[in-house]
């Protein structure tokens, strides 16, 4: 599904959303994304020479969307970052959030969704 979204900078941008069904043995994923070209047009800096694009402004904004979504449709894990779909599952985080994070994690504990931003 394609659409438009208001970025935290106030710019309207194209976006997309894809549901990925895991079947009986897997989990379901909901991928929401804003293309890098749309971030360019909005003037959002996301490349600083690291191997993966990152914008703390966009990461935190996406985490906020996930936190609001969690209130209506609880989930077991959310991940935020560039090309992170399918790279983690809730079983990998049974002991909690890792200290070094290449992506942001949204992990529920005791009914409360906790966000650990990317820090590497």
Structural commentary:
The chain is an alpha+beta fold and 120 residues long. The chain is 19% helix and 28% strand. It contains two helices and six strands, in the order βββααβββ. The protein has helices at 36-41, 56-72, and strands spanning 2-6, 12-20, 29-33, 78-80, 104-109, 112-116. The strands form two sheets. Strands 1-2-3 form a three-stranded antiparallel beta sheet. It has a three-stranded antiparallel beta sheet with strand order 4-5-6, covered by helices on one side. A hairpin with an 8-residue loop joins β2 and β3. The protein is globular, with a radius of gyration of 14 Å. The chain starts with a strand and ends with a strand. The model has no long low-confidence stretch (mean pLDDT 86).
**Uncertain stretches:** none
Binned strand content: 25-35%
Structural class: alpha+beta
Distinct helical segment count: 2
Helix residue percentage: 10-25%
Total strand segments? 6
Summarize the main sheet: 3 strands, antiparallel
User: Strand order, biggest sheet?
Assistant: 1-2-3
């Amino acid at each position: 599904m394609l659409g438009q979204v208001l970025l935290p900078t106030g710019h309207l941008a194209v976006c997309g959303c894809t549901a990925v069904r895991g079947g009986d043995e897997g989990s379901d994923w909901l991928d929401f994304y804003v293309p890098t070209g749309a971030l360019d047009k909005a003037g959002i800096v996301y490349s600083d020479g690291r191997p993966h694009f990152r914008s703390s402004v966009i990461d935190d904004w996406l985490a906020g969307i996930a936190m609001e979504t969690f209130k209506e449709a609880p989930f077991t894990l959310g991940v935020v970052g560039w090309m992170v779909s399918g790279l983690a599952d809730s079983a990998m985080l049974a002991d909690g959030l890792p200290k070094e994070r290449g992506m942001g994690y949204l992990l529920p504990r005791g009914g409360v969704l906790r966000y650990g931003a990317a820090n590497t």
